[in-house]
Amino acid sequence: MRASLLQVAVNEGESVESRRRRVAALVREQAGVDLVVLPELWTTGAFAHEDFAREAEPLHGPTFEAMAEAARDAGVWLHAGSVPERAAVGEGSTGGDGALYNTSLVLSPTGDLAAAYRKIHRFGFDRGEAVLMSAGDELVTVPLPHTTLGVATCYDLRFPELFRGLVDAGAETLVVPAGWPERRRAHWTLLARARAVENQAYVLACGTAGTHAGVPQAGHSIVVDPWGEVLAEAGPGEQVLTVDFDPALVAKTREQFPALKDRVLGLDRPHR
Ligand SMILES: O=C(O)CCC(=O)C(=O)O
Question: Which atom of ligand 1 is nearest to the CA of 157?
Fold first, then answer.
């Protein structure tokens, strides 16, 4: 398989509309690859908290429309990163009518919505996303022709139990869009490799570049194989990171070094 991670620069000088057009053109340029991955909240920026409500959109909103057309034109599977989603009235969402979510969209090469994932772990402690957005409560996997994706978003990377849940649901390629700050770049690289090693899965982690809301972004998108080897890593600026990988290596690694079979379940329950 060939994947392209689009490490988009999110700077304040560019409008959401112009970034959407620019990113759609970048997606079209990836015709011929199997999978394209975009970062977290690349329309607004993950730290532009005051823009979340203003730019919030329904699932099939302007970002979906632009990305569906681009995915169709390029004939690629597209993990379109995440958008600030405004839940529909009467949908019965966990946050209630009109709640905001940090929602990732996965589109098929025909431009259909294959899956939507509402970020489970919201970042910010008592501020920002943690208070402005509601939390999702569903794990999401997406079967592709040669691998099954497990999707997670940015801060989720710190919670290994979420990834175990994805593996139990059949995930072999873990896709993590992010808006990770430069200040904690060492954690980003370490955690991406840790999730790959402990789950014997590919990790495709796509961050943003640039600076918005005073927060310099780490860039350094990374692709790690099931043995923990770094197949490709971006620099700090806007970049397209294209990588070839063999999905069959997941089963081979799990067979040759069957650590997942030695799991002892139930250790997360309170002990007597
Ligand atoms: O966990 C971190 O250090 C960064 C998380 C983050 O920036 C986010 O989830 O938006």
Answer: 1
Determine phi and psi for 190, rounding to 5 degrees: -65, -45
Q: Which of 55, 85, 129, 154 is catalytic?
A: 154
* Domains of the chain, residue spans: 2-260
d(CA 79, ligand 1 centre) in Å: 19
Q: What is the ipTM of this complex?
A: 0.96
pLDDT at 269: 78
Amino acid found at 234: A
Structure confidence by residue, pLDDT tens digits, 112-157: 999 999 999 999 999 999 999 999 999 999 999 999 999 999 999 9
Going by C-alpha positions, the residue among 192, 187, 154, 199 that lies closest to residue 40 is: 154
Q: Which CATH number fits domain 2-260: 3.40.640.10, 3.60.110.10, 3.30.360.10, 3.55.30.10?
A: 3.60.110.10
